[in-house]
């Protein structure tokens, strides 16, 4: 589930004696956006077609108020005050459609296909990574191969947010997909672990551009009432890759070699691009408000983004070296990270202020703890229990289905009032799954325990991750969607980097380096020595972080006074 998605330009880490009152949800700040639009149904809109027109909007008079503002893009810049009756009926019909309705079908299929390929790459790479690291003599750098992706994506997310807000999401999306494919080819052709890591870094640049651009597409092209459905479709697009990806990648790795797992994917990217890009150009291109003067790029924020990426990379490098000289890059990393985090995340994020800051913090805590733990699951099963890469990958396969199920559960309209409880429950499941996974290090514990635990953990992640995305868009003005989506993804990516650095340092210090040295002379499917404490030092701290996430989830909803 490696995945790959806010900023008000304010100080996120500055302490304050009390939490300032958070701003009300965006719907409550706009008189033309009534709260609770998700209750309207398609049958109501259909009944309104052909009736009299509202003199203020031109829409059918009996169309529910929530659908009158739910047309594609959820804003109507430049639209005349009144629409002809026939056109009003057409707009109402578009507003009542689902994600596979005529208006949204091609766009939905295209962007979900993009996510599908990213998901396939993530699950396939996770399966092939233990063999690639062993062949390139890079097991001590194992965590770096994952965190390099997130490190460079941090900068790309900020750039993509500004790019999409000013020019629309089309250009950053196309550029990101191209960089993603180039990075795959570079990793597939690598002759050393550092070249492999460089390829992963290029992938991260592409992935950061893509994920933020996709959020902007959703915010502009889809009305709020069906955004949970498209988020659920994103999660569902992980199901087939999660089941087929490990099997396909394991088979390719064992029969043809791990390199083919990387070089075979870029060719497939052309198909969803051809389907999605024309629809994005039609429905979500250009700035959010075409009539507003063009805003220059915020160079300060771009410099901060470079700082956050460089700082995260230095911390990761210091964590891998584990000697006194590593103190220097670690100190430099902290010096770069602190002001960058303060400038790129909303005020109150670090202290979990209610509302948007806690939504953004929760995304990082959930993704970071889960991904840092999951990255080590295949390596643990291959080296400690002697599983083949295919079997180790398949132990996580069912998680794709349960992740999609969790996302589907949160998308049900009748559960909307209980979203906070769903998110708390999801984080409890995540913490439990991470804590249970290392019990497989005990020889008497069957390996299928990992599959069961991860299935429950992925169900919790499906509820939490999709819910943070829904709440972020709900609390964001259209012109802020790109920036806030970037902050959400920065929190996600930065937590991944920092927690992978922490886990990687603990792993290396408690036996990971010895494990890598032993691996050089072993067969691809053989165990490489017993170092259970190295793995336990990764999983147990991540479980504690997930427990903290359960508390943060209690603060995502603004309490009405």
Automatic annotation (TrEMBL):
Q: Where does it localize? A: Cell membrane
Pfam families given for it?
MFS_1
* Feature: compositional bias, Low complexity: 39-53
Stretches of Basic and acidic residues bias are at 1-11
According to Swiss-Prot or TrEMBL, what is its membrane topology?
Multi-pass membrane protein
Q: Which residues cross the membrane?
A: 109-133, 139-161, 173-197, 203-222, 229-248, 260-280, 301-318, 324-345, 357-379, 391-410, 422-442, 448-473, 494-515, 535-558
Name the segments for region: Disordered: 1-82
Which stretches make up the Major facilitator superfamily (MFS) profile domain? 107-561
**Alphabetical list of InterPro entries matching this protein:** MFS (IPR011701), MFS_dom (IPR020846), MFS_trans_sf (IPR036259)
Instruction: State the Gene3D superfamilies in the record.
Output: Multidrug resistance protein D (1.20.1720.10)
Keywords (A to Z) from UniProt: Membrane, Transmembrane, Transmembrane helix
Keyword set includes Transmembrane: yes
Q: What is this protein called?
A: MFS transporter
């Amino acid at each position: 589930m490696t995945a790959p998605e806010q900023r008000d330009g304010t100080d996120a880490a500055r302490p304050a004696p009390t939490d300032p009152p958070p701003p009300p949800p965006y719907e409550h700040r706009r008189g033309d956006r009534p709260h609770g639009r998700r209750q309207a149904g398609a049958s109501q809109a259909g009944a309104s077609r052909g009736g009299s027109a509202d003199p203020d909007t031109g829409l059918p008079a009996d169309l529910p108020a929530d659908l009158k503002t739910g047309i594609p893009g959820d804003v109507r810049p430049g639209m005349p005050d009144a629409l002809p009756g026939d056109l009003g009926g057409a707009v109402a019909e578009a507003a009542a459609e689902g994600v596979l309705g005529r208006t949204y079908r091609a766009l939905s299929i295209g962007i979900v296909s993009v996510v599908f390929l990213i998901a396939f790459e993530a699950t396939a790479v996770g399966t092939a990574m233990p063999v690639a690291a062993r062949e390139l003599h890079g097991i001590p750098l194992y965590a770096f191969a994952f965190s390099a992706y997130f490190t460079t994506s941090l900068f790309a997310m900020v750039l993509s947010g500004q790019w999409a807000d000013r020019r629309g999401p089309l250009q950053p999306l196309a550029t990101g997909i191209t960089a993603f494919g180039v990075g795959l080819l570079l990793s597939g052709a690598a002759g050393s672990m550092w070249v492999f890591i460089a390829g992963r870094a290029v992938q991260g640049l592409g992935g950061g551009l893509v994920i933020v651009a996709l959020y902007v597409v959703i915010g502009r092209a889809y009305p709020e009432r069906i955004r949970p459905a498209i988020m659920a479709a994103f999660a569902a697009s992980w199901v087939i890759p999660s089941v087929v990806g490990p099997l396909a990648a394991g088979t390719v790795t064992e029969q043809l070699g791990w390199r083919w797992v990387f070089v075979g994917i870029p060719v497939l990217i052309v198909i969803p691009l051809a389907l999605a890009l024309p629809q994005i150009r039609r429905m979500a291109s250009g700035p959010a408000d075409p009539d507003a003067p063009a805003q220059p790029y915020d160079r300060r924020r771009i410099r901060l983004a470079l700082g956050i990426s460089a700082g995260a990379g230095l911390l990761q490098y210091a964590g891998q070296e584990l000697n006194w000289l590593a103190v220097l890059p670690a100190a430099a990393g902290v010096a770069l990270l602190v002001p960058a985090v303060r400038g790129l995340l909303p005020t109150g994020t670090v202290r979990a202020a209610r509302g948007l800051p806690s939504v953004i913090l929760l995304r990082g805590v959930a993704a970071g703890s889960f991904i840092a733990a999951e990255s080590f699951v295949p390596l643990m099963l291959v080296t400690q229990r002697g599983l083949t890469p295919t079997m180790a990958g398949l132990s996580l396969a069912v998680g794709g289905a349960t992740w999609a199920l969790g996302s589907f559960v949160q998308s049900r309209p009748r559960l909307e009032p209980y979203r906070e409880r769903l998110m708390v429950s999801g984080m409890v499941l995540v913490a439990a799954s991470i804590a249970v996974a290392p019990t497989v290090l005990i020889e008497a514990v069957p390996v299928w325990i990992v599959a069961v635990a991860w299935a429950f953990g992925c169900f919790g992640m499906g509820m939490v991750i999709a819910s943070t995305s829904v709440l972020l868009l709900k609390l964001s003005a259209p012109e802020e969607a790109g920036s806030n989506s970037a902050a959400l993804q920065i929190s996600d990516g930065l937590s991944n980097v920092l927690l992978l650095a922490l886990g990687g340092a603990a792993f290396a210090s408690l036996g990971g380096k010895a494990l890598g040295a032993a691996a050089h002379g072993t067969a691809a499917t053989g165990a490489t020595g017993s170092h259970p404490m190295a793995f336990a030092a990764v999983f147990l701290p991540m479980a504690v972080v997930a427990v903290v996430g359960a508390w943060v989830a209690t603060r995502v909803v603004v309490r009405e006074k």
